[in-house]
Amino acid sequence: MIVYGIPNCNTVKKARTWLEENGFNAEFHDFKKKGITPEKLNEWCNVFGWEQVLNKKGTTWRALSLEVQQRVADQKNAVEVLLQHTSAIKRPVIEVDGKPVLISFNEAQYAAVLK
After folding, report:
1. What is the CA radius of gyration of the chain?
2. Cys-Cys crosslink for 68: which of 63, 64, 72, 93, Cβ 3.0 to 4.6 Å?
3. Mean pLDDT along residues 63-90
């Protein structure tokens, strides 16, 4: 299991705590330090939809120029923006056996999918 995110994100902290308390041993991938590939972002977009992977509620998105925001109308443009602004990736993303299975944190969803 791999948890993708950034360590100071409250949602990532909640997810990691829940995983630990429920006996899951997860590797952590800090995409601020280790980066993220366009292939990985496209894989997540193919599973969850680019609209889910792009966090439009966060401060990173709101800080982008209106021109950049308006350019994001499809997966290709979303991935380009996310590669430049990794903090706009909704997090965490949980992969099990190399497959993305969860995005964000919802305790009931985690319990249903992982137990």
Report:
1. 14
2. 64
3. 96
